[in-house]
Amino acid sequence: MSYSDYGDNDPIYGDDLADEDRESRPRLMLMGLRRSGKSSIQRVVFHKMTPTETLFLESTSKINKDNIHSFIDFQVWDFPGQMDFFDPTFDTTAIFGEVGALVFVIDSQDDYMEALARLHSTVVAAYRVNPNITFEVFIHKVDGLSEDYKIDTQRDIQQTTTDELADAGLENVQLAFYLTSIYDHSIFEAFSKVIQKLIPQLPTLENLLNILCANSGIEKAFLFDVISKIYIATDSSPVDSQSYEICSDMIDVIIDISSIYGRAAIGAKSQGYLDDQQDQEDWSHQQDGHDDYEDSNGGGHGHSQAVVSNSSRAGSLNNQPAQSGGNHEAFSVIKMGNGTVLYLREVNKYLALICLLRAETFEKQGLIDYNVHCFKEAMDQVFELKRAERTRREMEANQLLEQQHNGLYGHG
Amino acid sequence: MNRDMLKLRKDPTIPPSAAATVNTSTTNAFPVSPRLGNTGGDSRGNRSGRQRTSPKGSGAGNNAPSNSASSNASVASTQHPTTNGGPAVGYNTLGSPGYLTGSNGLGIGASGGGGSSAGSPLVTGNGGHSQQDGTGPSGNQSPLQPSTSPISSPNTFRFDTNGALWALSASPDYASVAVVGRDVLKILNVTEWGAEEAINLKAVGVRNNFAGSTDVKWGPTTGRDAKIATIGTNGPIVIWDIGTHNKIGRTIKEHTRSVNRICFSPQEPNLLLSASSDSTIRLWDLRVRDKPGVIMDAKDIVREVQFNPTSTHDIVAGYESGNIQRWDLRNPLVGEKKFMAHMGFVTSLDYHPSGRFLASGGRDRTIKVWDMEDEKRREIHTIPTIQYTSKVQWRPNRPYQLAASFKDESTVQVFDVRRPYVPLHVLYQHDKDATSILWKDSDVIWTVSKDKTFASALVKGQTVSADLLPGGKAAMNCYGQLAFTVSTKAGPDSFERDLVPKPGRPNAKAVALDGSSEPMVYRTRQTGGVFDCELFNHEAFIYCAQNYSMEAGNIREVCEHNSNVAWQANKYRDSQAWTALKLFFSEMAEPAIVVSQVDAVAPEVTTSAGTKEEEQQDDDDDIDTLEAGATKPVVRSLFAIKVLDAPIKRNWSHDDTIRNMLEFYADQGEVQMCVTILLVLAEEEDLPQFDLSQHWFSSYIDLLSRFKLWSIATAVSQACKDDRIHTMNQDSTTIHTSCSSCMKPILTRAPSSSGFWACDRCRKVLSSCSVCHKTVRGIFTWCTQCSHGFHLQHAQEWFSQSAECPTGCGHQCFPEMLKIQREQEQMSLRLETPDNETLHDPSHPHAHQHFPPRSVHSHPQQELASNQGHSTLRATDSDAKASSPLSYLPYNVV
């Protein structure tokens, strides 16, 4: 399935409405020297390109705007590396004015002195225009470096950059540094942290997840954006890479299985992200027959000896309308050999909640199901506010437009 | 002593070796009473002293035998019998505090029947298994026991709290401890002998909607002002006034995101620090209820915050990004020194009691020790750990030691920073992940765990895990040399004696953690050596590898050749084997004729044609048995020679012989013979199949690689018909670059700070330009004969002026230049003699090209082409200097 083009063809959020929608859409900029890996990052994270394919990407020659329509809408601007900010024709105000986050990519395997100079000038220029911008520095292509060398590189880059900024009188500019590589999960994790800073509801989501974890005996809970495998929120306990990786892999497994066993809805599934009309089409497979529910439940315990037993099922709740309120819900449980249970539940068409919990805790599955249900309702309420806000603003804009039109007609 | 009166106890859970020790020591003098008693209640016959040697809670029996001997020995000098049942602590004469307890029958102790043992304490030094005597519900036997588990030794017990625990904090006098978890909020009274629940705050918490807590800190105030602070799982910091009434004193909700850590000031009892995910550190004065906290904007998620124990205003914070930053509370607007400490978040920080050093644990699975007064921002010690630490704390009064608990790890480990790779002690206290630790004093550590228990462990006397490591190692190289090391340990617990001053440049500022000026590191006392085993004749192996022919098809000649090779390598048996092979397959030289064995009764020799007779003759020459004239008729009578049209088959099979031969060589480990024979016979149709042939090939290739016979290894791999061997060098081929002066490979994953551009070993810049002496990054051009390299541009400039190598090595890298210069001279002198042919070097490929000096700039394309030819084409040019020494050339063309 291909997600490669989601965004630009969107009937609602097309470019014609971009101006109007701009405020609600944080903009994320990818910058860096040429050949530092910006477009590769964009392709791998947002377009499901496999890392090896990125070798054949052409170099970017113009600013490539990419509208990401996921749980939060944002734009990724992929800048060509050779862009010169000191060119007077370059409109820094327009570019940096509404940027939420500026991601600067540094090729760690190269001599990065030039990149640091460019980073410095970029930060200075951008900060002057927009002090609210968050600067994220990806020390990229670290897959080729040893552990010791990685930390030395990061330390060196971080020290040089902050010292230079301090010399320029910009002590307050905060740069966040990440070691990334497109060949492992680090790029997704780094992007998760970048995106999280752009989500205004993050504290609320985190708190909700904390409460969910505390009350359900869940060790770790992630709220994943399913397409990009970015987690947009997690509970406040520290994220270790293994738990992130296993949750991320679980999404792959579920998507793969759903594309095999899912019914016709799957055909629409890959486009489901594109098409708002298919609002209620979930991304997971929908098996036939409600007896799957009992099956997987009963069989779940029997699978404890298997290293990974997948009692994945979905859509079962749509046979029980009283509980689900008519929503399709994807739901999957993977029991691991080491006594850990992975619990996935669809939250809405973009988001999935993935929890890591111990097998003994999972014996109270009913409680967990109920808690997750409450969590979903809370989430809906949180984002209802946002939606209401947006609708209100759109209406206001329309009214304004109408007034203008009326005014024009009046004058005419 | 009446033995019948006294029963010998033998606990089945004691490992046999330990039990044997116990039995020996007890039956020799004092049998053990089975009588159980409570601590201190019974006054009869409890003249027993007992030394704690190793209070291992879960009783993993890995240290019993070695320890028991030593503890028995040391206890022999102990003369502190306690006269009644109260717990008593004594010091043995060896100087190390050992606990002698009068726990009446709780340990494997003795009850002297009738006073026969009065005055001489019985000691069983059985290495820490003595608590398993079943006198009570001991913690390790019944982890779910919901009550205090009195165990025979002081400070070793577990207490079940009915809920997974996340954090603990002790009251200033260490008489009570607050433990918190997901649904636990309790205060326990702790004695040496166990813990009991004093206050359960959960009900109050639930009423106020605080389900559980992620962290707890006990304030330094005592008495009526006593406070504890907890972080609710749903966000707020809750201050409990436990001094007066157990209720919530204050709830701090100002943090917009969850709070990760709180910390009381050790100097100012009412100051509380909180570190939060909302990127702030806040300082609260608990005396003023409504005063908002002082905000320190960290601009990063703050995971951990700690006060400097020697200062009122110096704090340190650990961030999600792996940075550690120092803050001064007097200036909360601007943070002080910030440095990159870990990859991934900082999990735990602890200030050294000296206030100068800081230990930090991070997601990169290391504990690092920092000198906070040093400007270098470099760790002074690094301890690699099995998982990332959840909590790290310095051991009181042991300036070099710290304890750490780890994520998803049930053990707690005590490290000495001078010996970072082996933990000093490993404490098996818990069944599930230990979540937090707290030193009660320098010998006792308290831990909480997800297995719902609070545990106390005595660290003093634990086995030093490094003593359990084998000290000897041996390894063999491909030249038959055996290298070995033997540990020359001075004895158990010799750690302190094996410390040496830290090697490296003397640093005037370096200060050891204990305040002395000389940092020490542990150096293993080992003696090593190399022993020449002469098990393997590597010279013959190399000679054969280089000279054996592996060509399939022409078996006769190849076998003859290989036989000679083996003979020259003094491998006479191999030489004969090749000869035999040649004989086996010789008869196939003329495929139309088959020598077949006929019935022995057939007396005649059937000869079809003269040519066959010759062939037979030929065979006779080769086959030894047929050579003797006397045997000829006999043999002839056995064979008939027939002409067969088709198909041709060998009538007597060598399969078994060849199989035997190969198996013999495989048994001998002579993979060289196995592989070469297989390759030579590869075209034979009915060659027996060997299950192990793939292994033979891979080990032969491996062996060839060890002797750096790369080309032969590749040839073997390509000649092999097995797909896995054949494709071995077709996937993931790695080409390493090497330093041109010392041949050390320049690894892509170079751990050095120099990266790819300098050699770590010989400290030379790699592939430097002979003109500007800088590293060439990009196209590297070099002279194939003197192997000096240049930037392309520098080479162009230089050789437009001169023919000699710029290094001054005297080589004329660019003889054309000389010729051109001569021409110019001649032109200027207007001499017409065409003797410049004498300067012409006929072997030079560019000899006929004339480059006027100016053309370098006017025709850069042409010059580029010529330079490339200069550097690369000549190496492959068969005409040019095939005999010139091909020095190794660094391959840096990116």
From TrEMBL, chain A:
Q: Which SUPFAM superfamilies match?
A: P-loop containing nucleoside triphosphate hydrolases
Q: Which Gene3D superfamilies match?
A: 3.30.450.190, P-loop containing nucleotide triphosphate hydrolases
Biased composition annotated in UniProt, kind: Polar residues: 306-326
Taxonomic superkingdom: Eukaryota
Which parts of this chain are annotated as the region Disordered?
A: 276-327
Query: What catalytic reaction does the record list?
Result: GTP + H2O = GDP + phosphate + H(+)
Q: Which CDD domains match?
A: RagC_like
**Compartment annotation:** Endomembrane system
Please describe the quaternary structure of this protein. Component of the GSE complex.
Instruction: Quote the function comment for this protein.
Output: GTPase involved in activation of the TORC1 signaling pathway, which promotes growth and represses autophagy in nutrient-rich conditions.
What's the protein called, per UniProt?
Answer: GTP-binding protein
Q: Species name for this entry? A: Linnemannia gamsii
User: Organism classification, top ranks?
Assistant: Eukaryota, Fungi, Fungi incertae sedis, Mucoromycota, Mortierellomycotina
Automatic annotation (TrEMBL), chain B:
Bias kind Low complexity: ranges: 17-29, 61-77
Can you say where the WD repeats lie in this chain?
252-287, 339-380
Q: Name one Pfam family in it.
A: WD40
- Alphabetic keyword roster: Metal-binding, Repeat, WD repeat, Zinc, Zinc-finger
- State where composition is biased (Acidic residues): 615-624
UniProt entry tagged with the keyword Heme: no
Q: For the WDR59/RTC1-like RING zinc finger domain, which residue ranges apply?
A: 766-814
Annotated CDD domains: mRING-H2-C3H3C2_WDR24
Q: Where is this region: Disordered?
A: 1-90, 111-156, 605-624, 834-884
Is Ubl conjugation one of the keywords UniProt gives this record? no
- Polar residues bias: start-end ranges: 46-56, 129-156, 858-875
- Top-rank taxon: Eukaryota
Report the protein name in the record. WD repeat-containing protein 24
Name the gene.
WDR24
